[in-house]
């Protein structure tokens, strides 16, 4: 459904370097990385919002370059919270927006308005950050898209609303015909719903695998400071130390039977944080 190959983009202070990954039909892919790692640049380059320097983006078997208008009819895209025409009512903004989509579905749109508790009579400026996110999602979901690309879709939502949104994501892909790619720094959301994880750091992909495999490939280890030998530390991805001991992340294949450590299963946040902090261990 979506294939990215060797995507590159250079700015004066940042470089996206040969980003490649593939999202098959019927799955949810999480795109993780620290702020500034290249998530938004990748998404914008994929959609030709930003012109990449090189690389290819294939969606539904077609190159985005030359087929952009037709392909975007089938893509539901959300970039942050909706901030369109602040002093216009929601209904007015939607009347303009829906003209761009041949498959706009008013019945689906009304259903999402009710589901998210949105009021068409309110001005955009009257909406909270969370409601603006819900409006942006409503627009993305109301024109029968097959591929959904969301940048921080749960940002600004309370825990209950985030849980409801993750349930909706599962509903979207359950027929096996649609897929979702979304970037987020709230990795606990991905723990609950993602099938695949793409992890970007400093403009480069450092992991591209299933969520379960990524977690299985790593282990959290902890122990007393006196047990943190140079040999053990050299095998850690990253480590935190305090007066009582240390905790670190290690690739499971580098773990030795004789290591004097307590072992635990990491979550996605652990993996992202320890890779990001590895240079300062």
Give structural notes.
- It is a single chain.
- With 281 residues, the chain is an alpha/beta fold.
- The chain is 31% helix and 29% strand.
- The strands form 3 sheets. It has a 6-stranded mixed β-sheet with strand order 6-7-8-3-9-10, sandwiched between helices. Strands 2-1-4-5 form a 4-stranded antiparallel β-sheet, covered by helices on one side.
- The radius of gyration is 21 Å and the shape is globular.
Unreliable residue runs: none
Shape: globular
Helix content: 25-40%
Distance between the termini: 39 Å
- As a percent range, the share of strand residues is 25-35%
| Major sheet: arrangement of strands | 6-7-8-3-9-10
Topology:
Elements: E1 2-11, E2 14-23, E3 28-32, H1 39-46, E4 54-59, E5 62-63, H2 68-72, E6 75-79, H3 90-97, H4 106-116, H5 129-141, E7 147-151, H6 159-173, E8 179-183, H7 187-193, E9 196-201, E10 204-210, H8 211-216, E11 218-223, H9 230-234, E12 236-241, E13 246-251, E14 262-264, H10 268-277
Parallel strand pairs: 3-8, 3-9, 6-7, 7-8
Antiparallel strand pairs: 1-2, 1-4, 4-5, 9-10, 11-13, 11-14, 12-13
Helix pairs in contact: 4-5
Descriptive terms for the model:
alpha/beta, 29% strand, 6-stranded mixed beta sheet, 281 residues, 4-stranded antiparallel beta sheet
């Amino acid at each position: 459904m979506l294939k990215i190959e060797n995507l590159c983009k250079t700015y004066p202070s940042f470089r996206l370097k040969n980003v490649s990954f593939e999202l098959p039909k019927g799955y949810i892919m999480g795109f993780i990385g620290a702020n500034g790692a290249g998530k938004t640049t990748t998404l914008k380059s994929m959609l030709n919002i930003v012109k990449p320097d090189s690389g290819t983006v294939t969606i539904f078997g077609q190159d985005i370059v030359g087929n952009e208008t037709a392909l975007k009819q089938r893509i539901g895209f959300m970039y942050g919270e909706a901030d369109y025409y602040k002093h216009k009512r929601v209904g007015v903004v939607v009347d303009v927006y829906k003209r761009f989509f041949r498959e706009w579905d008013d019945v689906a749109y009304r259903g999402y308005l009710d589901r998210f508790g949105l009021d068409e009579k309110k001005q955009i400026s009257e909406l909270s950050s969370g409601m603006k996110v819900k409006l942006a999602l409503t627009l993305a979901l109301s024109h029968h898209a097959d591929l959904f690309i969301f940048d921080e879709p749960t940002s600004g939502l309370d825990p209950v609303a985030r849980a409801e949104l993750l349930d909706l994501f599962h509903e979207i892909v359950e027929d096996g015909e649609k897929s979702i790619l979304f970037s987020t720094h709230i990795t606990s959301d991905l723990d609950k719903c993602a099938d695949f994880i793409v992890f970007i750091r400093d403009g480069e992909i450092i992991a591209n695998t299933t969520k379960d495999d990524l977690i299985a490939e790593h282990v959290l280890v902890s122990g007393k400071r006196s047990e943190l030998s140079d040999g053990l530390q050299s095998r850690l991805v990253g480590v935190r130390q305090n007066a009582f001991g240390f905790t670190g992340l290690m690739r499971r294949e580098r773990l030795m039977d004789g290591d004097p450590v307590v072992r635990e299963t990491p979550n996605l946040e652990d993996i992202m944080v320890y890779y990001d902090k590895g240079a300062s261990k």
